[in-house]
Amino acid sequence: ELVETPDREEELEPRAPIITVMGHVDHGKTTLLDYIRNTKVAEREAGGITQHIGASVVDIDTSEGKKKLVFLDTPGHEAFTAMRARGAQVTDIAVLVVAADDGVMPQTVEAINHAKAAGVPIIVAINKIDKPGANPERVKQELTQHGLIPEDWGGDTVMVPVSAKTGEGVDELLEMIALQADLMELKANPNKPARGVVLEAKLDKKRGPVATLLVQSGTLKVGDAIVAGLYAGKIRAMFDDKGRPVKEAGPSMPVEVLGLEDVPLAGDKFYVVESLEKAREIAQKRQELARQSALEREKRISLEDLFSQMKSGEVKELNVVLKADAQGSIEAIRKSLEELSTDEVKVNVIHAGVGPITENDIMLAAASNAIVIGFNVRPDSAARKAAEREKVDVRTYRVIYDIVDEVKKAMQGLLEPEEKEVYLGSAEVRATFKVPKVGTVAGCYVRDGVIRRNANVRLVRDGVVIYDGKIASLKRFKEDVREVQAGYECGVGLENFNDIKVGDIIECYTIEKVQREV
Ligand code: GDP
After folding, report:
1. Hey, whose CA ends up nearest to atom 17 of ligand 1?
2. What is the pTM assigned to this prediction?
3. What is the ipTM, given to two decimal places?
């Protein structure tokens, strides 16, 4: 890994801010980005084709002169947090779009918490003010409940009413972004070999690997040898966001480059080295390391690991993403968790919400070194896969006391040799039958893994656990069986439970004692 020598103050020059647009679905993120791009991007390639390379540079006139703003083209906190989980923080400012006729919605809250967890300042665009039902004051009121207090109410969050459709207020919004950027005094040293992040990459049939790179420091030049992720290359040609060929790109500038030997991943870091030979040598080493660590499956963020890091002073905060079946339980759990904070260790609930554990929750945890706690809710299948891939510790509970007890014990370094839940598989309920003297039997299809007669089961409806217990009967056709594998159908009866509905998920698991390593 290349060690970067810190820049001296006099070597630094101002750079443009990088902006991500976030917000609830349909609140107007794409429309706002399009409006800004179409009206503010003055020059275009001959023929007027808009080039989408992953980011757009916008020139604006402010009272302080001409400024550049760089907008990432992929709106939403999903892409933002996925990048962070890969170790790349590219955003300087988040623009939170809230529709004035709809107000604060679940993904608005998610976006706020994702931006906060990253320490990125938020500017609010209260959108759709052209609509008859628009109520910007109500939006402000709702946002205060999530810690964003508007400036005109004595807080420090800039909120600009806009219409992405008519363009009203958009100039003011852009000016506010520029102002915020000035306050942040964003700087970088342009006079050194470039380094930065891969925003997008693909294989083009004619041109070979094509990547959009965001330069974070230094200046990238045609002819430079680079390492991007696991691959080497020599920059053959470079294009700006308007598709124009350029010879170099300084800090904050996105460019599309040709000349990489393979396709890196979005979120990979890149940097310039002295020669293509050197780049290939580094790339080779990285590929070997990647193969090894894929085998070892190194990093896992778990409660125990976090606490051992805390004991050694590496970590001072326990970050928690909390999901539960009701707002009331969230407040109770949040309060009791935060009360566990000591002088040495702070317990931080960085995001809380009602509903099942989603892939977004996992990615936020991965990006923020957090664990995920679920109360009466379960991860959906995408979340379970993500948790495995990202090595995020997901713990689910049915009793609030257990959550507090376990976290408390862990904080005192007293986590006992633990019982660990082992997930076996799940089945979907496709039909239900009332059987006299037996009760309800569910006709199921095993989606993944295995359903075992003697294991524990829980019944999950819309991500919420509504039953936790044992299987009373497991049949294939008329036969009693010990287990049923994925891809097969079966009949399942639950002990003392008949409220089974089509669409419910039956999850099967066992509890195993784990020998903890010392
Ligand atoms: P996204 O999911 O957040 O990207 O939302 P879109 O940009 O796709 O917008 C969702 C819908 O709202 C589309 O039908 C837009 O035309 C509409 N829309 C977006 N901004 C405005 C606005 O300022 N005023 C009005 N009236 N409609 C808008």
Report:
1. 28
2. 0.76
3. 0.99
